[in-house]
Amino acid sequence: xxxxxxxxxVNGRSHELxxxxxRLLLDxxxxxxxxxxxxxxxxxxxxxxxxxxxxxxxxxxxTMLAASCEGQEITTVEGVSxxxxxxxxxxxxxxxxxxxxxxxxxxxxxxxxxLLATNPNPTDPEIRDALSSNLxxxxxxxxxxxxxxxAIQAEQKGMAART
Amino acid sequence: xxxxxxxxxxxxxxxxxxxxxxxxxxxxxxxxxxMLTGKILxxxxxxxxxxxxxxxxxxxxxxxxxxxxxxxxxxxxxILPVGHDEHALAVDKVRYVGDNVACVAAEDEATxxxxxxLINVEYELLPAYFDPEESMKAERDLIHxxxxxxxxxxYHHVFGDPDKGLAEADHIEEARFIANEVTHAAMEPHSTLAxxxxxxxxxxxxxxxxxxxxxxxxxxxxxLSLVLEMPMSQIRVIKPxxxxxxxxxxxxxxxxxxSAVAARKAQRPVKITYTREEVFxxxxxxxxxxxxxxxxxxxxxxxxxxxARVVQDGGGYCSYGVVTILYSGALLGALYDIPTxxxxxxxxxxxxxxxxAMRGHGTVxxxxxxESQLDELAAKLNIxxxxxxxxxLLQAPCITVNGLRVQSYGLPECIDKVVDRSRWKERKGKLxxxxxxxxxxxxxxxxxxxxxxxxxxxxxxxxxxxxxxGGVVVxxxxxxxxxxxDTMTAQIAxxxxxxxxxxxxxxxxxxxxxxxxxxxxxxRVTFMAGNATLRAAEAVKKQIAAxxxxxxNCDLVDLVFRDDAVRxxxxxxxxxxxxxxxARPAEGAPSFSRSLREGGDVDSSSPTVxxxxxxxxLRGSLQQKRKEDDAPKTSMSFxxxxxxxxxxxxxxxGTGSYAPPPEARGGKHKGGGVGPSPAYSYSAxxxxxxxxxxxxxxxxxxxxxxxxCGRALNPVAVEGQxxxxxxxxxxxxxxxxxxxxxxxxxxxxxLEYRSPSSVESPEVEAIIVESIDPEGPFGAKExxxxxxxxxxxxxxxxxxxxxxxxxxxxxxxxxxxLAALRAKKNAKPLNLTEGVDPTSPTTFREHGGAxxxxxxxxxxxxxxxxxxxxxxxxxQ
Lengths: 163, 876
Ligand code: FES
Ligand code: FES
Known about the structure:
- Chain A is an alpha+beta fold.
- In chain A, 36% of the residues lie in helices and 15% in strands.
- By secondary structure, chain B is α+β, with helices and mostly antiparallel strands.
- Chain B has 3 domains: 31-126 and 188-243 and 249-282, Aldehyde Oxidoreductase, domain 3; 148-183 and 284-451 and 665-824, Aldehyde Oxidoreductase, domain 4 (2-Layer Sandwich), CATH 3.30.365.10; 460-658, Aldehyde oxidase/xanthine dehydrogenase, molybdopterin binding domain (Aldehyde Oxidoreductase, domain 4, 2-Layer Sandwich).
- In chain B, the strands form 8 sheets. Chain B has a 7-stranded mixed β-sheet with strand order 3-5-1-12-9-10-11, with helices on both faces. A 6-stranded mixed β-sheet of chain B has the order 7-15-14-13-8-31, with helices on both faces. A 4-stranded mixed β-sheet of chain B has the order 18-26-27-30, with helices on both faces.
- In chain B, α10 (364-381) packs parallel to α22 (788-803).
- The radius of gyration of chain B is 28 Å and the shape is globular.
- At the A-B interface, α2, α3, α4 and α5 of A face α1 and α20 of B.
- Bound molecules: FE2/S2 (inorganic) cluster (FES) (2 copies).
- One FE2/S2 (inorganic) cluster binds at residues 40-42, 45-50, 60, 62 of chain A.
């Protein structure tokens, strides 16, 4: 297949890419843009390790064409840190054991970011539901719940301090 | 009582930020200029002789740089010295669907895949063996010519007089248990990047560097040297971040050798990353195990004898098989006091991917059988199921009938804790119908006392170097795979040296830089590499202390290393006692609560020392200090002490190593080398489940898991390991199962394999029990595997409590639960999958996995074993 030029906006920057129209978004990110944070954990869109936000919605970049994302805002795990510092959820995952081997973590970061953006105070079942789009083989998920709650608290404290 | 500044505190993993930001690099994230992509051609047949391979068309394809086949590297290898039965690529035969036949190295993945289709392989099909009990009857067409009846290895052990034991028993229970095959399915698919330097004399490929997702870099280095016929010193193995292992990366996986062979031929760097489907074929998981178990007890519940006959479906190669079958027998001991044991173990070859080591290696399936049977006996004798376990406790310290030395034994406390927390006494047997509680116990080694390669070499060695600015670098061969190895190493070094965690940098698992460590498996790292770190740190500390005592004009014993300073204690232990109290609010509380964790956190990121900026070269300030310095001081900052030591000794380095003591190495019987460990962890669990009697669906609501880890060096990490083990056990208990048809895996995807998601995962309450082992580093033992085995029988026993059925085959799927429920009511068995039996599908999941489309993936093996011919492939 012949390469064509596409423009992708990733983490707030535009990139012009010469890629095949059938290039998967995950490959474009990992191979063409060297954004290796997003992972490939499966062949059949079952694991969520490749999740990125496309216009704020978590999508599996392993089953999406890069070309179809033109004009949309893509956020990868590399774009989660805020002003050069860890986002609350990143720190909390570290502190609370939400990441063991860390291979699933980038995907979870995107899922949780979306969860908290749409539902800043989720209940326990809501958290479980939201996380069920991603698989983890290390943690049994429990410490992730703690981390998410800690992140929400930290965010709220931070907000209180700012206002 | 000693108090610690860093040990015992919940500490974030030292590499956490790399994982949460995406900055951390796993093998597949690495690339090199000129790097090629390698793709492997797999066998479509379960058992066949290779007559001819013609790769000429593939070689001519534009973009293909090299094609390698078996004859490019024909030396055999295998993880065990007794099991060198694998080749990088098949030389004469293929032994399972998915076996490795050829590899293409090409400019990109698409080209490599196209090239695979151009390789012509002519096979002569052989009858294949899929069922271990059938396979044991084989007379011809053996899987390996030197293994009669396809038996890889059998062991027959008798300890005490089990026949007499059974004769004395008041009750005997006997049954067959089957645990179906499961696999690790670590989230990171295996990946290896290999590159050769060009030799400056010959211009030929010289030194080899390999980055690989491995738990055992030194074993990989050794096997590469065997296959490639290169000295180990010419091979450098580097382990980047590893995305989970669970044993699946604890031996040399074919792609690790193949990528090096391909890189040598292509004279370019080659990276191979498995697809998820290939990960399932590479497997090395927990074998399907058939356990015929017989237990005798007295009326008071005391066990008199255990007889077990175990058959493991090992797959096409030895892998860790000989060790697995030994663990199954050896760890019948060391949990309870069992006076007599007979064990007959058979490791059998079949034409399926090789099974190997998986979390709880060898012990899990037998533990399921044993703990279920003990529960049945308790019910017969009308003894509470927690109580019957208490009545069979060991009197530690002791040596078991099969030669295992037990020193620290927290099992009684584990049982008490879970009984208490689950409100067992009030609730057991009293929950509404359909809901129940079950208890079970398990244990595991803290590393094997005997290495798989027999030698007197230490199992772990660690070097420490300290620089003039007080930066501590720890060089360890131990492999971080997500379990927290690097963090544990940093914690121990910092605790011993009395410095903050932020000063410690861990350089790990790089065979050129780090001293040898046999790897991350059998839960050995904390115990063994931890002890080596402790000793290395003590060695450097001694040098610092010598210099500091001169400066402070005091005895060595009066020095206290703490809070980034070296102080004279002189009985007036000022300051730091107070800080201790502050830094250790969790004193006496084995677990910790959220508020404690927030309040009492150790700040690992700000090692500010007497107001100075970390990392500055301190010559100026030191010169100034020296002037004031003539009078002996009562304390020195860590840097000052370090500088003094370097001035005094030259360089400041230290080495420590660990080898298990001879007393811990077990009995002298054949196979007695497997099972002994310097220390065992203990676990007791209560599971609460409900069973839907209409659908057969089992839901686990909560698991209380008490685990004796000796000392919890890092409670947050220990709890994470315990929860993860319980969760993985629950997966094996309820959903996970590899389903085969004619040697073809029908569910090679994470969804079809049914790895539980968050909505299927119960709450796990991890309860830490600290028995303080006399030989563990700060008393620590293992915590990453031992809990897994108890979960499966705890759930099985809870199902019995809920609906009164005993399940003897795992996983406890709705089909099996319903079948048992109907059998109990004497109702006719219901065949839910009639005509679509998952083991012989015609319409059900015809494609097995996701990637089975035309021209790709294995073809169906055609009727060589007299089964009905499979339906035509390629139909969508
Ligand atoms: S890589 Fe698994 S869902 Fe995308
Ligand atoms: S942390 Fe390893 S897979 Fe989730």
